[in-house]
Amino acid sequence: MKILLISIVSIILFSQCCDDPKVEIFTAFAESTKNGESWVAKGEFYYNYDSTKLFSLFFDVYLNEYYTTDHLSFKNLPLLKGSYIPVESSWYTRYDTAAVNYVITEGGDALAVSYILDTNSTNNIIKIDSIDVSNKMIYGSFLLQFIIDKSFIPNYPDAPDTTFFSKGKFHAKYK
User: Fold this and answer.
1) How far is CA 80 from the centre of its chain?
2) Domain count, the chain
3) Suppose 45 and one of 26, 94, 111, 127 were both cysteines; which one would form an S-S bond, judging by CB atoms 3.0 to 4.6 Å apart?
């Protein structure tokens, strides 16, 4: 009887411990011209943890299967057609404010260069161009300019002072 009771309790505990219905990952793709060169990234679509009304997109460019070179993220976007002026993403960014982040990493997770959004630029915009509700697809475009974060000592000497993403397009599958 004791073994049966322990087994039932274990099954209940372990069957619920790993299910987190609020975190969902989907496939996303982006392409742009970055500083005059072609840039193509793969990524994920996430609903924000506390809401299905806001989402975030995380895009990575891989040199090989395990080595990330670029990481661009869009955060706190509503699942609504429209234009959004982003702010620099930080720990202090309001959860309902569109935000962006761009870094270069080495070895998959070592931060090589940190960039901040160039708030002097009037070019920064993310657009949700269309939403295909029958196929659960979102399509958008972006134009972003970043400057190197002077408070971070770069570990990548060839990093440009300014990074400009133009003609950016993205699409993502959502649920």
Assistant:
1) 17
2) 1
3) 26
Cβ–Cβ contacts within 10 Å for residue 57, how many? 26
pLDDT tens digits for 26-77?
A: 589 999 999 999 999 999 998 887 666 889 999 998 766 657 688 999 999 9
Place of tokens 């960039």: 115
In-domain check, residue 144: yes
Q: Give this prediction's pTM.
A: 0.80
The number of angstroms, rounded, from the C-alpha of 58 to the middle of its chain's C-alpha atoms is 2
- Within the chain, which residues score under 50 in pLDDT? 1-22
135: containing domain: 22-173
Three-state SS at 124: coil
Q: Which tokens in the block code for residue 126?
A: 């993310």
- Kind and range of the H or E element at 114? strand 110-117
Contact 18, 158 (CB under 8 A): no
Contact (Cβ atoms closer than 8 angstroms) between residue 22 and residue 47? yes
